[in-house]
UniProtKB/TrEMBL annotation, chain A:
It holds the Pfam family BPD_transp_1. Gene3D superfamilies: MetI-like. Belongs to the binding-protein-dependent transport system permease family. This is Iron(III) ABC transporter permease. The chain crosses the membrane at residues 21-45, 65-88, 100-124, 144-170, 191-213, 247-265, 297-322, 353-375, 387-407, 413-428, 494-513, 519-543. Its main location: membrane. InterPro entries: MetI-like, MetI-like_sf. It is found in: Cell inner membrane; Cell membrane. Keywords: Cell inner membrane, Cell membrane, Membrane, Transmembrane, Transmembrane helix, Transport. Residues 65-266, 349-537 form the ABC transmembrane type-1 domain. The lineage of its organism: Bacteria, Bacillati, Bacillota, Bacilli, Bacillales. It is a multi-pass membrane protein.
Length: 552, 361
C-alpha cells in the first residue's frame, strides 16, 4: 500500500527546495527566538530565589501587589460599566448625536493614557483648576491623590477600550433574537436582562479582563497620581532605577501571570464560541424597540457627561499648552510649543514620530511575512512560530520593556540605549495584533483565487504582488495605522528603554508632569497629538477612500 | 518528435494523501480536439486527477505527458492548462476586463493584442459590454462566463473545467451546456470536464471516463457507457438499471445465450465479454428498454406484478415484482392516459439485454 511521504525530514527537504521561503522562515525564527523567547528565559533566570524571598518577606511589596489588584479591579469594573452603558446608548437607544459620541470615545486613542493623568492633575491636582476654585470659594481641600484619583483616571483612560470591545459584541447580537423575545412578551428591563445582557455577557467579561490586565501593568498614571499608593509597575521602575534587575524580574513575572491567564481564557472562550455567533438575517421591516423615552433621556445625559469630561480633559491640556501659565497668566503664547516641540534640544515629539513610523512599518511587514508563511507554506515548527508570534499580545508593555532591558543590557548581545531596542519593543507589542488580523484576512482569500493566478502563468512572487497583497491592502493599512497610533502613545513599553538621546513624547509628558512643569507637559501632549493627526491625514491623502482610518 | 494525435498521456499515475490512495494506476490517453468528461461521485479522484494535470498536485508515481512533453516537474504556472474553477475564483479587486486579461498580462503580450483577444473571448461567452464591471456586480451566470473567458483567452491546447456549472440553476445549466459544447467544437478545443452529473457527461462528451474509488472503471463514448457498461458500478451510476442474475448456457463468437429466472427462460444476445458456459453473469436492462405488453416468441420476458407507479412527465415509471420476488423498474413513454395495473408481462428486445461479468467487489 502506498503512503504519503510525511514527517520532519520530508518537510525540511521540501523547505530546502524553496529557498526564498527557507530564508523567510529562518529569519522569523531567529527574530522571535532572540526577542521573545530569549528575554523571557533571562527574566525567569535572573529573578533568583533570594529575590523571591525578598519580595515575599518585605511588607512593602505585598502592599504594592494588593494595591495593584484592588485598584485595577475597581478601575476595570467601572470602566467596563461606563463602556457598556455608553455602547448600549449608541446601539440600542434613539438618542441624538450618536456620531458625536462615537467620535468622543475614539479621541482618547489619539493621546497617551498618561495625558489623562496630566489633565486630571491640571483639573483636580494640588493647584488644579477645580481644586483651586473649591478652595477659594468653599475653603474645601480636595485631595484625590492615591486610590480615588487613580480610580477615576484609569476609568476614563480605559473606558474606550471597554466601549470598543463591547460595541463589537452588541453589533454581533442579531436583532432577530430581541424581536422574537418582544414577540413573546418580554419588554423593558426584563428583555434587557434575559436577552441582551445574557448574550453580551461573555463579551462584557472579556472587556473587563482586558481592562483589568491593562490597568494591572500600567505605569504612567499610577506613578503620576498614585502618590504613596504604590503599585507593582511603579515598584519595578524603582528597582530598575536602583539597578536591582532581579527584584524587578520577580515583580515582572507576577505582572505577567494574570495576563497569561486571561490570554489563555480568551483563547478557550474563542475556541468554544459564544451565543452571539448564531445569527441570521435581520427580519426585514421589523425594528427592535428597546428603550423608553425616559431611558433615552437618562442614557443621553450619561453619555453627555462622559463626553464633557473627556472634552474638558483635552480642553484644559490645550489651554495649558497655549497660555503662559494657565490660571495665573492666561495670555496666549507659542513659547511652550516652540521650546518643547520644535526645539532641537527637545527632540521628543520628533523621536516619537520617527521611531513609531519605523516600528509600525516593520511590525506590519513582519506580520505579513509571518501570516504568509504560516498560512500558506508547510515547514517544521510552525506551531512554535505561531505561538511565539502571538505571545507578546499577552505580555504587558511594562513586562516587555523590562524583559528587553534585562536581557540586552549585558550578556552576549548589548542593545541598551539604542533606538533599535525601542523600535523592537514597540514592534513586539504591535506585531501580534497585525499578525492576527492578517492571518484572518489571508484565510479569507480563497485558495482557489491564488491557484487561478498560478494556473494562468503567475509564479508565486507574481501571485503575491498582483493578487494577494492587493486583496490584503485594507487590512495592511488598517493595522499600520493602529500600530502607529499605539506606538506614538505608548509609555509602559518603552519607559525602561529610553535614553536622553532617544527620549520620546509620552515619556516627556510624564517627566514634565511629575516635576510640575505642566505647561510643557501639555505642550508636548499637543505636539504629539498634532504629529499623530498629521500623519493620519497624510495616510488618508495617499489611500483616499480605500481605507477607513477614523472608523468610529 | 513524432507527430501524434494524443495530446494528453497519463502513464500509471498514482497519488496518495496520508494513507488515502486517491489515484490508483491511472492510464489514459486523450486525443486532440475531444471533449472528455471525468465522471464519478465525490471523492472518486476525478478532481485530484484534474489538479494533477494542472500541476497543483505532483503525482507520487507515474508520468503526466502533455503534447509530447513530460510535465511531472513543471510547476502549475508553466503548464499552460487554464482551468475554470468550480467557485470561479475571479479576482475580486479587478474588473472583468482585467480578470480576463490577467494571463496575457503575465505573458507580457502587447497591449493591442490583449485588447483584441479579450474582446474576442468576451464575445464568445456573450459578455460584450460588461468590461468595466467588478465580479461582485455580476450574477452567478455572468461570473461563470468570465471564468470561462479567462481560460479561453489563453488559446491553450487544453482547457480544464472543474464542475463549472454546479453553482448555476437547472435551467441556466442546460443553456450553458449547449453553448460550451458549441464553443468547444467551433474552436476545436481539447476539454477535460469534471462532473458528478451523469446527464451533463452524457450530453456534452465525446468520451467519458468513469471513476470508481481512484481507478478508471470505464473509458468510452456516452453511448457505450450507457448501453454497454463494463461493470455493475458503471451501470448503476449512470441512469437507472435493472439487474438480474443469469447463467450462460451457450456462448459462440460474441453471441451468448443466458438463462434467467426460475422458469428457465433463455434469451440470446450479443456481447463483447468473453464468457464460459456455466458462468454466472448479470443481466442489465434499462427501464425504458422494457415494455409492459403481450410477449412474442424469442423475447426476453417474464410475468410481473405492478406494486406502484409514478407519473414523471414524459414517462410513467412502474415498480414491479416478478415471480421470484425480484424488483424491476420499467419506464413507459408517450403513454397518453393509459396506465397498467395488476399482473402484466414484461418484455424487452433481445438486443437491449446487456451482459456484465460478475466481479468480486
Amino acid at each position: 500500500m502506498m503512503k504519503e511521504k510525511t514527517g520532519i525530514g520530508e518537510s525540511i527537504k521540501r523547505l530546502f527546495k524553496d529557498p526564498s521561503t527557507l530564508v523567510l522562515v529562518l529569519t522569523s525564527f531567529i527574530f522571535l527566538v532572540l526577542f521573545v523567547i530569549y528575554p523571557l528565559i533571562v527574566v525567569v533566570f535572573s529573578s533568583g530565589f533570594d529575590n523571591w524571598w525578598t519580595f515575599f518577606s518585605k511588607p512593602r511589596y505585598g502592599r504594592a501587589l494588593l494595591n495593584t489588584v484592588v485598584s485595577s479591579s475597581l478601575s476595570a469594573f467601572t470602566a467596563t460599566a461606563v463602556g457598556f452603558i455608553y455602547a448600549y446608548a449608541i446601539h440600542y437607544s434613539n438618542i441624538r448625536g450618536k456620531k458625536f459620541f462615537r467620535f468622543i470615545a475614539f479621541m482618547p486613542l489619539l493621546a497617551p493614557s498618561v495625558m489623562s493623568g496630566l489633565a486630571f492633575l491640571l483639573l483636580f491636582g494640588r493647584g488644579g483648576m477645580i481644586s483651586q476654585w473649591l478652595n477659594t470659594n468653599f475653603h474645601f481641600e480636595l485631595d484625590l491623590y492615591g486610590l480615588p484619583g487613580l480610580w477615576i483616571v484609569q476609568t476614563i483612560s480605559y473606558f474606550p477600550l471597554a466601549y470598543m470591545t463591547i460595541t463589537g459584541v452588541l453589533r454581533s447580537i442579531s436583532p432577530n433574537l430581541e424581536i422574537a423575545a418582544q414577540n413573546l412578551g418580554a419588554r423593558g428591563f426584563k428583555l434587557f436582562r434575559t436577552i441582551t445582557l445574557k448574550l453580551a455577557f461573555p463579551g462584557v467579561l472579556n472587556a473587563f479582563l482586558l481592562v483589568a490586565i491593562n490597568c494591572f501593568a500600567d505605569f504612567g498614571n499610577p506613578k503620576l497620581i498614585g502618590g504613596n499608593y504604590s503599585l507593582l509597575a511603579v515598584e519595578i521602575y524603582g528597582e530598575i532605577i536602583n539597578n536591582e534587575p532581579g527584584l524587578a524580574s520577580v515583580m515582572g513575572i507576577i505582572l505577567v501571570i494574570p495576563a497569561l491567564l486571561v490570554f489563555w481564557m480568551q483563547n478557550k472562550l474563542l475556541s468554544k464560541g459564544s451565543y452571539s455567533t448564531i445569527t441570521g438575517k435581520p427580519v426585514s421591516g421589523l425594528k427592535r424597540i428597546t428603550t423608553s423615552k425616559k431611558m433615552d433621556a437618562l442614557l443621553f445625559t450619561f453619555n453627555s457627561l462622559i463626553s464633557l469630561f473627556i472634552i474638558l480633559m483635552f480642553g484644559v491640556t490645550i489651554l495649558f499648552a497655549f497660555t503662559k501659565n494657565f490660571g495665573r497668566n492666561n495670555s496666549f503664547t507659542l513659547d511652550h510649543i516652540r521650546q518643547v516641540v520644535f526645539s532641537s534640544s527637545s527632540p521628543a515629539v520628533m523621536n516619537s514620530l520617527v521611531l513609531s513610523l519605523i516600528s509600525a512599518i516593520l511590525a506590519v511587514a513582519f506580520a505579513l511575512v509571518l501570516a504568509y508563511i504560516v498560512i500558506r507554506k508547510p515547514f517544521p515548527g510552525k506551531k512554535l512560530l505561531d505561538f511565539s508570534a502571538v505571545l507578546p499580545i499577552a505580555l504587558p508593555g511594562t513586562f516587555v520593556g523590562l524583559a528587553l532591558i534585562v536581557a540586552f543590557s549585558k550578556g552576549p548581545i548589548v542593545l541598551q540605549g539604542t533606538a533599535a531596542l525601542i523600535i523592537i519593543a514597540m514592534l513586539l507589542k504591535q506585531m501580534p495584533v497585525g499578525y492576527r488580523g492578517l492571518t484572518a484576512a489571508f484565510k479569507q482569500v480563497d485558495k482557489s483565487i491564488e491557484e487561478a493566478a498560478t494556473n494562468l502563468g503567475a509564479n508565486s512572487r507574481k501571485t503575491l504582488t498582483t493578487i494577494v497583497f492587493p486583496m490584503l491592502q485594507k487590512t495592511v493599512v488598517a493595522n499600520f495605522v493602529y500600530a502607529f497610533m499605539k506606538n506614538m502613545n505608548t509609555l509602559s513599553t518603552i519607559i525602561f528603554l529610553i535614553t536622553p538621546k532617544w527620549v520620546v513624547a509620552s515619556v516627556s509628558i510624564f517627566n514634565y508632569a511629575e516635576t510640575g512643569t505642566y505647561y510643557w507637559a501639555a505642550a508636548v501632549a499637543v505636539g504629539l497629538m498634532g504629529a499623530t493627526l498629521g500623519t493620519l491625514g497624510v495616510i488618508k491623502l495617499i489611500f483616499r477612500s480605500k481605507v477607513k482610518i477614523f472608523d468610529f | 518528435m513524432m507527430e501524434t494525435n494524443i495530446l494528453l498521456d497519463l502513464k500509471d499515475v498514482n497519488k496518495v494523501f496520508g494513507n488515502n490512495h486517491v489515484l490508483k494506476n491511472i492510464n489514459l490517453q486523450i486525443e486532440r480536439g475531444k471533449f472528455i468528461t471525468f465522471l464519478g461521485p465525490s471523492g472518486c479522484g476525478k478532481t485530484t486527477l484534474l489538479r494533477s494535470i494542472a500541476g497543483f498536485y505532483t503525482v507520487d508515481q507515474g508520468e503526466v505527458w502533455i503534447d509530447g512533453e513530460m510535465v511531472n516537474d513543471l510547476p502549475p504556472y508553466k503548464r499552460g492548462t487554464p482551468m475554470v474553477f468550480q467557485e470561479y475564483a475571479l479576482f475580486p479587486h479587478m474588473t472583468v476586463f482585467d480578470n480576463i486579461a490577467y494571463g496575457l498580462d503575465i505573458m507580457k503580450r502587447p497591449e493591442g493584442e490583449i485588447q483584441q483577444r479579450v474582446e474576442a473571448a468576451m464575445a464568445q461567452v456573450k459578455l460584450t459590454g460588461l468590461e468595466d464591471r467588478y465580479p461582485h456586480q455580476m450574477s452567478g451566470g455572468q461570473q461563470q462566463r468570465v471564468a470561462m473567458a479567462r481560460a479561453l483567452v489563453m488559446n491553450s491546447l487544453i482547457i480544464l473545467l472543474d464542475e463549472p456549472l454546479s453553482n448555476l440553476d437547472a435551467k441556466l445549466r442546460e443553456e450553458v451546456r449547449v453553448e460550451l459544447r458549441a464553443i468547444q467544437q467551433e474552436l476545436g478545443l481539447t476539454v477535460i470536464y469534471v462532473t458528478h452529473d451523469q446527464l451533463e457527461a452524457l450530453s456534452m462528451s465525446d468520451q467519458i471516463v468513469v471513476f470508481n474509488k481512484g481507478a478508471i472503471d470505464q473509458y468510452g463514448t456516452p453511448h457505450e457507457i450507457y448501453y454497454e457498461p463494463k461493470t455493475q458500478y458503471v451501470a448503476d451510476f449512470i441512469g437507472t438499471t435493472n439487474f438480474a442474475d443469469a447463467k450462460v448456457v451457450k456462448y459462440e463468437s460474441g453471441m451468448a445465450t443466458v438463462q434467467y429466472g426460475q422458469a428457465g427462460d433463455t434469451v440470446t444476445t450479443e456481447t463483447s465479454e468473453k464468457l464460459a458456459v456455466g458462468e454466472e453473469v448479470l443481466l442489465c436492462v434499462r427501464p425504458e428498454s422494457l415494455r409492459i405488453e403481450q410477449p412474442e416468441i424469442g423475447e426476453f420476458h417474464m410475468t410481473g406484478l405492478i406494486k406502484s407507479s409514478m407519473f414523471l412527465g414524459e414517462k410513467q415509471r412502474y415498480f414491479l415484482v416478478d415471480e421470484i420476488g425480484k424488483e424491476w423498474i420499467v419506464d413507459a413513454y408517450d403513454i397518453g392516459k393509459k396506465t397498467f395495473e395488476g399482473v402484466v408481462r414484461i418484455t424487452a428486445a433481445a438486443e437491449k439485454i446487456h451482459i456484465i461479468k460478475k466481479t468480486d467487489s
